[in-house]
Amino acid sequence: MPEIRVALAGVGNCASALVQGVQFYKSHPDEDIGLAHPQLGGYRVSDIKFVAAFDVNKRKVGKDLGQAIFESPNNTIKLYDQLELGVKVKRGPTLDGLGKYPRQVIEESAEGPTDIVNELRESGAQVLINYVPVGSAQAAKAYAQAALEAGVGFINAMPVFIASDQTWAKEFERRQIPIAGDDIMSQIGATVVHKTLVKLMSDRGARVDETYQLNVGGDMDFMNMLEEERLRDKRESKTSAVRAMTNYPVPTRIGPSDYIPFLENEKVAYIWAKGRYFAGAPVTIELKLSVIDSPDSGGVMVDVIRGIKVALDRKIGGPLLSVSAYSFKHPPEQMPYKEAEERMLAFFDGKLPR
Ligand SMILES: NC(=O)c1ccc[n+]([C@@H]2O[C@H](COP(=O)([O-])OP(=O)(O)OC[C@H]3O[C@@H](n4cnc5c(N)ncnc54)[C@H](O)[C@@H]3O)[C@@H](O)[C@H]2O)c1
Hints:
Elements: E1 4-9, H1 13-27, E2 39-40, E3 43-44, E4 48-55, H2 65-68, E5 89-91, H3 116-123, E6 127-130, H4 137-150, E7 153-156, H5 166-174, E8 178-180, H6 190-203, E9 207-217, H7 220-224, H8 232-243, E10 252-259, E11 266-276, E12 282-292, H9 293-313, E13 318-319, H10 321-327, H11 337-348
Helix pairs in contact: 1-9, 3-4, 6-8, 10-11
The structure holds nicotinamide-adenine-dinucleotide.
């Protein structure tokens, strides 16, 4: 049986949805609904195995990963009551991981931090996913550095720029370790819908004059993003993804807009675009999208994990350009989503080097 051994930095809602989703496809081997690519590079989602996990929350550290994913304040959907994975969550270095609002509801573990590099080596991890909160630049870079030192492929799910940063990218290339990022673009999320809408208007001859996207949600991600200073890269990441769809500048405002606790892990996005088409006649499009945020990212993450594994199999290091363009908001190279998918599939077929 092929196996892809994955470590998680941050056992929040995204990790929970990913772990539960992988378990779901393991126990329903004939189920393909929800998967854009049931098979990639000879791997199935059920080949993913979680071998290590790191967090700083007292309620999660020391617990089995299968239990830690259900600990408060995680509040994404629950598919299982009992899940025993045989992997203990280890204490990561906190650094700047806890923002001022999450600190009010999360009690930090009193344990000293684990040696991440050692834990990655001992667990036999092949891929490390960075799921720490927005604004945690030091923590994100500490995990990227640990991946480099342990020789483990790195996936940066959040908006601190690592895969899209030249210095980091070169270092991953020099050490022949694959990396994909930055800031995962969800399966049917606000970014891909907004990108597609702006591209549609542009492809069909309309001039897009102004556009915005407002997002609200009720989980820790949204509570953390109340702190505007932690948000700079998130805004830049989401905005650059939409801006890349036109070859002229469009006044654009995109970002998280508020924290509404009772929405829990439901995210509501309001997307608005105004433009002109035939003979300058005006057009306005308003769209409301409502999703469960964390499984939305899981549906794409399972493709990225397989991309990193295939790169490891082929001894390819550095940023995976096609996989990143398809799966992330702020990749090293932006592409319309269809072109990115074609290139990613060519990579999996061995027709493109990265
Ligand atoms: N659809 C999506 O949900 C989506 C899309 C794109 C990007 N992201 C990003 O992915 C990241 C994870 O999202 P989430 O919803 O799981 O967030 P979350 O707040 O639920 O989880 C973050 C976890 O990281 C832990 N943590 C904090 N500092 C840490 C450290 N130094 N080391 C290890 N763990 C630490 C927290 O205790 C928490 O368990 C966020 O940055 C989010 O913006 C999510």
